[in-house]
Amino acid sequence: MKDHEVNVSVRVIPDNRPFPFHVPAVDSLLDVMQTGAQRADVTLLPNADAPLDLLHNIGKHQEPGPAITDLGQAVGDYVDADGHTNDFGIELVRAIRVNTRWAIAPKDMTSPHEILDLFQLNYQEYSLYRGNSADLLPLDTPIAISRGDAFEAQRDGKYGGIL
Amino acid sequence: MAPALVIEHVAALNGRGARAEVWDEAGQCYVFVPGLAAPSPPWDRTSYDILIAIPAAYDMAELDAFYLSMPYTYNGGTHQRVENGAVIAVRGRQWRLVSWHYLDGKRWRAGLDTLETHIAHCRGFLLARGVKG
């Protein structure tokens, strides 16, 4: 492994403002993503250690390449490979949470039925609520979804005994 | 002794940023869930610790109800569905049983429901969500 530093830049897609910095060549692409997110003042979801957000290499003509699947590889090796540049872009995905799990919502307007399906929860068994709300979300009425939205899926309950 | 599966599920919850602990009290296994958020008012605080009794045959045997940390007030008094619950002492604290159950026809399903979904079910009590009876 090369013992040197690599100059990189990270931008948040589609914002084209690059944040340049340098990192040890042995650092991982995840390290680059984490530092880039800090420089750009964005929070990776669900957390910086295992983000659902995506890292792309930015081509010579400023076009984002496909999402990089192996974030564990060393940045020095990556940028030395043919066709790769030192410029990266973070794609902030529409990450949503149900209970303690996270997934990427496929579209801006999504029905609770689709959300439960996304999390492999049976819509006939579970009710969906926004966090801290007691208002049941109608199963097939699409709702506006934003990055970071939190929901709770629960089996509804009943009181025991007779007063 | 705690069932191996509940230990696994608690570890998974903690790995996803939730907080839960396995407790053993005189041979009865509980899961301690600190700081479960509650609306205040009507509750007197914004979060409560709860205890969930874990059957030895978890998750083939269902989870049911939970214990609320004491003291509490609800609308300045007691909650009529809590006030008559049995009180237990665990780790030097008192906990009152909340008789909160799954609906007929939508009962616990082994392999589908987990500690995580039960905690969401318990949250439903504090938020008065979907109460059918």
Folded structure, characterized:
The complex is a heterodimer of chains A (163) and B (133). Chain A is an alpha+beta fold. Chain A has helices at 29-40, 75-80, 112-118, and strands at residues 5-13, 19-24, 54-58, 64-67, 87-91, 95-98, 101-104, 109-110, 127-130, 143-144, 150-154, 157-159. In chain A, the strands form 3 sheets. In chain A, strands 2-1-5-3-4 form a 5-stranded mixed sheet, covered by helices on one side. Chain A has a 4-stranded mixed sheet with strand order 7-6-11-9, covered by helices on one side. A two-stranded antiparallel sheet of chain A has the order 8-10. Chain A starts with a strand and ends with a strand. The mean pLDDT of chain B is 93. Chain B is globular. The N and C termini of chain B lie far apart (34 Å). In chain B, strands 1-2-3-4-6-5 form a 6-stranded antiparallel sheet. Chain B is 18% helix and 30% strand. Chain B has a single domain, classed as Roll (Ubiquitin Conjugating Enzyme). In chain B, a hairpin with a 2-residue loop joins β1 and β2 (28-37). The chains are: A alpha+beta (163), B alpha+beta (133). Chains A and B meet through β11 and β12 of A and β7 and α2 of B.
CATH class annotation of the largest domain in chain A: Alpha Beta
Number of strands of chain B: 7
The profile of the biggest β sheet of chain A is: 5 strands, mixed
Distance between the termini of chain B: 34 Å
Query: Structural class of the helices, strands and pairings of chain A?
Result: alpha+beta
- Most extensive protein-chain contact, per-chain counts: A-B, 25 and 35 residues
Mean pLDDT of chain A equals 94
Radius of gyration of chain A: 20 Å
CATH topology of the largest domain in chain A: Ubiquitin-like (UB roll)
Tell me the Rg of chain B in angstroms: 14 Å
Number of DSSP helical runs of chain B: 2
CATH fold-level name of chain B: Ubiquitin Conjugating Enzyme
For the biggest β-sheet of chain B, the strand order reads 1-2-3-4-6-5
- Category by helix and strand content of chain B: alpha+beta
Major sheet of chain A: order of its strands? 2-1-5-3-4
Total helices of chain A: the number is: 3
